Amino acid sequence: MFDDEDRLDQILNAAYACFTRHGVRRSTMDDIAREAGMSRPAVYQYVRNKQDAFRRLAGRLLDAALVDARAATTTPGDLTQQLTGVLEAKLGLAARLWHDSPAHAAELLGVETRQSADLVEAYNDAMRDLLTSAIASARPDLGTADAGEVAELLLAFTRGLEADLTDPEAPARRLRQGVALLVAGLDHPHPDKEAS
């Protein structure tokens, strides 16, 4: 017997299949109901409309990426490994969408999507906080403000890698190399810092 959570999962899985196959704009509630093996009225008991389904699905995907990112900060390893793990969770979400839907990934990943803009903003804030905390813990000499700047640099770098995921191996390799270089740079103070 299915409970409400199972039914919602079934609907969100169906929505993911439809959105990755047809795109959000071209998918209909009929498509989602058919994919879920449910009637449209039954689907409407769990989601208000296609936009609600998209928002709930986006929340689920972002939450899963955050769980992976948080786990990376508690995994034994040095700062490079922890930061790489956090950012691999972010990059992995984008890579999964590109893999599952090359034709519609840009639409699915669009930050401008009104239905989920606040969720994406909260996700980005949480990622920044995770990175800042990991950096500040490993390098207390930096202070929180500088650790936050490094976190911003890492997020900007990762967003750049997300822009071209046509070669699935290259972004992950570049991420590892970039994080390693940035962390190595933290061990060598900037000349302006040495003068002060």
Describe this structure in words.
This protein is mainly α and 196 residues long. It folds into two domains: 1-47, Arc Repressor Mutant, subunit A; 55-188, Tetracycline Repressor, domain 2 (Orthogonal Bundle). 76% of the residues lie in helices and 0% in strands. It is built from ten helices and no strands. The protein has helices spanning 4-22, 29-36, 40-44, 50-74, 79-100, 105-109, 117-138, 143-162, 169-186, 191-195. The radius of gyration is 20 Å and the shape is elongated. It starts with a helix and ends with a helix.
**Average pLDDT number:** 91
Strand content: under 5%
Q: What does the main sheet amount to? A: none
Tell me the CATH superfamily of the largest domain.
Answer: Tetracycline Repressor, domain 2
Keywords: DNA-binding, Transcription, Transcription regulation
Pfam family, one: TetR_N
Protein name: Helix-turn-helix domain containing protein
DNA-binding region: 28-47
